[in-house]
Design a protein that fits this description.
With 270 residues, the chain is mainly α. The chain contains 13 helices and no strands. α1 packs antiparallel against α7.
Length: 270
């Protein structure tokens, strides 16, 4: 597309998914670097403010891009409209709302059902209830960027499923600093372990499911927000399962929706 036309920069009025992907990874890594360097916990004062800004990269970066005109104004004229669309529960029908709840429960309890010997006491209410809410909120705040901005932008240039995988790769890389922050779930998995690779593979394989959910619900970003948030909370309430079981459930869910929706998942969508 030519940069000449209405006199504006040709980049304006168009999504910039690659700028979002690289920018979000850089944003989060830069802010988490001092947390890693000091050996402080993620929520330890005063680093909690730095880490908080870093983890909010997936919501801050798309807002900055939209504010500079790198977005489809017919979809969201301003960053405020973008955020409203991502968090407005009225955009999600009751049918899809119930479906999202079911998917989140399957994601959380499916791995445990594959390991009946573990029981359900290992993770149930293992921490303070406020932690459940916090983890769910932090997860939900990632989705405006990954799905509302990046998925929408990339799938206009490549097949939906390919865009989902690409985003999954960046999403996995985005998590890397957390493996070096004391007290995080990722740090408990270790670096270079089987659990480390299973965690990242689950993210990559699970991302096309988010892509399917976003589009199948009618390009409703709140569907992904709700799914991620509920999934995080439900996982905290359920017993701990092995990374292999979690990976298996993620892969099965993604494979199922790709097979069911292959005709449009293999195409680009505007």
């Amino acid at each position: 597309m030519s940069d000449v036309g209405d006199g504006r920069d040709g980049r304006r009025g168009r999504p910039a998914p690659w700028l979002y992907l690289f920018g979000t990874v850089a944003w989060t890594w830069v802010f988490l670097a001092p947390v890693v360097a000091t050996g402080r916990g993620l929520f330890e004062f005063p680093m909690v403010f730095v880490s908080g800004i870093g983890l909010l990269g997936p919501i801050i970066v798309p807002c900055l891009l939209i504010a500079t005109g790198r977005w489809d104004e017919s979809l969201d004229p301003t960053a405020r409209h973008f955020l409203r669309r991502c968090f407005d529960l009225r955009t999600l029908s009751l049918r899809w709302g119930l479906a999202v709840v079911g998917f989140a429960l399957l994601l959380a309890f499916g791995p445990v059902l594959l390991e009946p010997g573990r029981g359900f006491d290992a993770g149930l209410f293992a921490g303070a209830p406020t932690i459940f809410v916090l983890l769910g909120l932090l997860g939900a705040l990632e989705e405006p960027g990954w799905r509302g901005y990046a998925q929408e932008g990339l799938q206009r240039r490549m097949p939906v499923v390919v865009a989902g995988v690409v985003i999954g790769l960046f999403w996995a890389v985005w998590h890397l600093p957390l493996f070096f922050v004391e007290g995080t779930y990722q740090a408990g998995l270790g670096v270079g372990t089987v659990e480390f690779w299973a965690f990242h593979l689950a993210i990559v394989l699970g991302s096309p499911f988010y892509a399917w959910l976003y589009n199948a619900a009618g390009k409703v970003a709140f569907a992904a927000v709700l799914y991620h948030g509920l999934g995080n909370v439900a996982r905290e309430l359920s017993a701990d399962a092995s990374p292999a079981s979690e990976l298996g459930v993620e892969a099965a869910m993604t494979a199922a929706v790709i097979v069911m929706s292959w005709r449009w998942m293999r195409r680009s969508v505007e």
